[in-house]
Amino acid sequence: MKKVWTSLVALMVMSWMSACINSESELEIAIERDMKILRDFLERNNIDALETQLGYFYRKVESNESGQQIVNNNILGVYYEIRTIDGQLIDTHLDENKPPRLYAHSELGLVPRGINFSSGIAREGETLELFIPSHLAYGGYSFQQLIQPNSNLVVRIKFAKIYSQAQINEMEEQIIEKFITENEFEDFQKTSAGMYIRTVKEGSGVREGEGGSLVRFNYSIAQIDVNNPFANLPTGANSFQIRIGNQENQAFLNLSMLGVKVDQEIEVILPSRLGFGATTQVFPFAIRQDLFSRGLLPELARPFEPLLFKARIVSIN
User: Fold this and answer.
1) Is residue 125 part of a domain?
2) Buried b (16+ CB within 10 A) or exposed e, 116-143
3) CB-CB contact of 119 with 74 (8 Å)
4) What are the tens digits of pLDDT across the range 264-305?
5) Distance in angstroms (rounded) separating the CA atoms of residues 32 and 25
6) pLDDT in tens, 109-159
7) What is the mean pLDDT of residues 170-186?
8) Could you tell me if 301 and 289 lie in one domain?
9) How far apart, in whole angstroms, are the C-alpha atoms of residue 315 and residue 47?
10) Which of 91, 121, 265, 317 makes an SS bond possible with 200, Cβ 3.0 to 4.6 Å?
11) 221 and 308 in contact (C-beta within 8 Å)?
12) CB contact at 8 A, 140 and 19
C-alpha cells in the first residue's frame, strides 16, 4: 500500500531480458536478430516504414497536421490492436464506441515501451502502424499462450485524444456517480477532497482516528469495474497498519481513517488522484497481475480509474 518509485524501464529490461540474455553482448546479438527479422518482414510484405533512432519502425496510417503534438507527460486516450508479426492477436481495443484506454506519456507510462516511445512522434487524432522488436515489447517475458518470449510486434494505434488532468477528474467523477446510481447506493457522502465514503457498520469506543494515530485494519481494494479485489487482507488475517498523516501513505488512507472507531467498517470510492496516481499502464490488462507478482510492476492499480476501498478497523493507538 506504500508508494513505490522505481525505474520501470530499467527493471523490465533487466528482468524480462534476463530470461534469455546473459550478457551485454548477448543483448546486442538479440537486438540485431530482432531488427533483421523486422527488416525482412517489412521487405517481404512491401511495407514502407521509417526506422527510428530508438530501434522501432513506423508508418502513419492517418495523419492530422492540425492536431496537437504529443509531448512528455500528456495523458493519452488510445485505441489499438497488438499482434505478433506472425499474426497472433495479443490484445485489441478498437471499438471507438467505448472509452479509449488511458496512459501517461512518461518514463513509467506504458508497457509495451515501444508504443510509449511512439507517442512522441504523433499528433492527437493520428493513427500509426508500429513494428516493434521484442526488447521494446515484452522481451523474454511469456504469459500462458498469449505472449511468447522474444515476440516482435505489429501494432496499430490511434491517438484519439490528449486529456488534461481536469478532464480526467471529470471523467472519473462521472464514472463514480454512474457506479453509485447503477448500484442504488444512497448513503455515500462526497467529501471536499472528492472521494465518496459511507459507514457499513458503526464502530465502538471513544477513541477516533486522528493525525498521528496508529490504525490497524483489514481491507480490500479493487477497480470499480472489477468484482475481485487486486489487493486483499481479509478479517482473520494479519492486519495492515498506517500512521494517519504519514506522507508515504496514499491520500485516501490519511483521509478515510480520520474519525474512524474500532470495529467500524467503511467503504470508500475514490478517484485515482487520491489513490495510486498515474501508475504504469499495461496492454493487455490480462498480464497486469502476473507482472506484479513477478516484481516487474510497482503498482497493481490501473491509471486514471476510480477505486473501491473497503476496510474494517481493528485497533487505534
Assistant:
1) yes
2) bbbbebbbbbbbbbbbbbbbbbbbbbbe
3) yes
4) 999 999 999 999 999 999 999 999 999 999 888 888 999 999
5) 11
6) 999 999 999 999 999 999 999 999 999 999 889 999 999 999 999 999 999
7) 95
8) yes
9) 64
10) 265
11) yes
12) yes
Same domain flag for 177 and 157? no
Q: Are residues 310 and 178 in the same domain?
A: yes
Q: What is the pLDDT of residues 42-51, one digit of tens each?
A: 999 999 999 9
**Residue 116: domain span:** 8-163
Please count the helices (runs of H) and the strands (runs of E) in the chain: 6, 16
Contacts of 195 (CB under 8 A, 6+ apart): 252, 255, 256, 268, 269, 270, 271, 274
- Closest to 158 measured CA to CA, from 93, 247, 235, 89: 93
CATH of the domain at 173: 3.10.50.40
Which residues face 154 on adjacent strands?
Answer: 83, 131
- Exposure string over 65-85, b if 16+ CB within 10 A, otherwise e: eeeeebeeebbbbbbbbbbbb
pLDDT more than 90, % of the chain: 83
Residue 22 confidence (pLDDT): 52
Question: Is there a contact between 223 and 257 (Cβ–Cβ < 8 Å)?
Answer: no
Q: Would you place residue 23 in the very low, low, confident or very high pLDDT band (cuts 50, 70, 90)?
A: low
Residues 15 and 157 in one domain: yes
Please tell me the distance from the alpha carbon of residue 106 to that of residue 267, in angstroms, as a whole number: 32
Q: Is 92 exposed, middle or buried (0-12, 13-18, 19+ CB in 10 A)?
A: middle
Cα 43–Cα 47–Cα 49 angle in degrees, nearest 5:
105
First to last CA, the chain: 20
Q: Which of 163, 181, 200 is the last residue of a domain?
A: 163
C-alpha–C-alpha distance, residues 280 and 110, integer Å? 5
> Are 37 and 150 in the same domain?
yes
Of 163, 189, 224, the residue that ends a domain is 163
* 262 and 273 share one domain: yes
